[in-house]
TrEMBL record:
Protein name: Heme-binding protein
PANTHER family: PROTEIN GLCG, SLR1406 PROTEIN
Pfam family, one: HbpS-like
Superkingdom of origin: Bacteria
Residue ranges that the Swiss-Prot or TrEMBL entry lists as coiled coil: none
Amino acid sequence: MSTTAVAPLTTEDAELLVATARRAAEDAGVTVSVTVLDAGGHLLAFRRDDRAVLISGETSTRKAYTALQLNAPTADLVDAVQPGGLFHTLPTALDRPLLFIAGGLPVHRDGRLIGAIGVGGGAPEQDHGFATAAVQALA
């Protein structure tokens, strides 16, 4: 059995993700916090602006963690955690709370999960757009 090595998410990649999301948010007149995790859930980069809502830092981290754990955009998971949804009991089943609000995206390279980004501080749709712009800049 042969395996193909996939380059991990580097600090340089993480800094690019943060800078791109921040720039997209600033262009929209929004102040956000951005968190980037590697594939193991370790913090690679974080930015919180003092003008952002204080909770936005925790929000961005939980969005990134959720996207990483479930390998899916957090925007796509909202219905799954509603009563009767596929993941209704999941938030209490893990050690760290998850957050099912748009703004968290997994980051892939060569089809493999290498990390995640979370953006918090704007409206959910805005946060999702800022995270999307960042991931596209990395591609």
